[in-house]
Write a structure and sequence with these properties.
The complex is a heterodimer of chains A (116) and B (111).
Chain A (H helix, E strand, L loop, with lengths): L3 E4 L2 E4 L5 E7 L6 E7 L6 E7 L5 E2 L8 E7 L2 E6 L8 E8 L7 E3 L3 E5 L1
Parallel strand pairs in A: 2-11
Antiparallel strand pairs in A: 1-3, 3-8, 4-5, 4-9, 5-6, 7-8, 9-10, 9-11
Chain B lengths: L3 E3 L4 E4 L4 E7 L6 E7 L5 E7 L4 E3 L2 E6 L4 E6 L8 E8 L8 E2 L3 E6 L1
Parallel strand pairs in B: 2-11
Antiparallel strand pairs in B: 1-3, 3-8, 4-5, 4-9, 6-7, 7-8, 9-10, 9-11
Classes of the chains: A mainly beta (116), B mainly beta (111).
Chain lengths: 116, 111
């Protein structure tokens, strides 16, 4: 099956710093990628939809100035958590939709962010 | 009301048992339905899609009832390796393609 990578897999940072997470589709092109967040024992919650070449679409309650998304190519989307706070500590997972299969989404392995 | 509701469990069953999970969704316009499996601290992985006619993949059977907005997953002859959290997932519309996840049902298969 298709492969999506995320980097880094784990990051620990101090409050106030910014953290960039990369999501790459390795063997397919993805016009659309999605960013989810999962708190312990909770469901994955969609944060935003990343669209190649255009602005991301954010879900209600997600601050676009805090969670910056850039989708500059058909294989790469980045999520930058700016001025991170301890409450931003979570598991961030991206998924990419294969342009050739409309319903198939492939998930990255996730990035565990811990903000001290 | 949550868009996708599941019994969180945990379901503790012995090896070889048959176990069933249920899920309800609130958006009657939902188009696509899936069961995903998520292991602890890992990303979700697609287990199977769910069709109105029902579908089976080995020991796993999924059913969809659009009238009742209800989805089920049946696991027969449970294995230790089936222990995981099972996520009911729907696609709310045809355009956006984002997935809406239930909070998951945890299954623990015991020897």
């Amino acid at each position: 099956g298709a492969v999506v990578s995320q980097h880094p897999s784990r990051v620990i940072c101090k409050s106030g710093t910014s953290v960039k997470i990369e999501c790459r589709s390795l063997d397919f092109q993805a016009t659309t990628m999605f960013w989810y967040r999962q708190f312990p024992k909770k469901s994955l919650m969609l944060m935003a939809t990343s669209n190649e070449g255009s602005k991301a679409t954010y879900e209600q309650g997600v601050e676009k100035d805090k969670f910056l998304i850039n989708h500059a190519s058909l294989t790469l989307s980045t999520l930058t958590v700016t001025s991170a706070h301890p409450e931003d500590s979570s598991f961030y997972i991206c998924s990419a939709r294969d342009n050739t299969f409309s319903n198939e989404q492939f998930f990255g392995p996730g990035t565990r962010l811990t903000v001290l | 009301r949550k868009e996708v509701e599941q019994d969180p469990g945990p379901f503790n069953v012995p090896e070889g048992a048959t176990v069933a999970f249920n899920c309800t969704y609130s958006n009657s316009a939902s188009q696509s339905f899936f069961w995903y499996r998520q292991d602890c601290r890992k990303e979700p992985k697609l287990l199977m899609s769910v069709y109105s006619s029902g579908n089976e993949d080995g020991r796993f059977t999924a059913q969809l009832n659009r009238a009742s907005q209800y989805i089920s997953l049946l696991i027969r002859d449970s294995k230790l390796s089936d222990s995981a959290t099972y996520l009911c997932v729907v696609t709310p519309d045809t355009g956006r393609r984002a997935l809406t996840f239930g909070s998951g049902t945890r299954l623990q298969v015991q020897p």
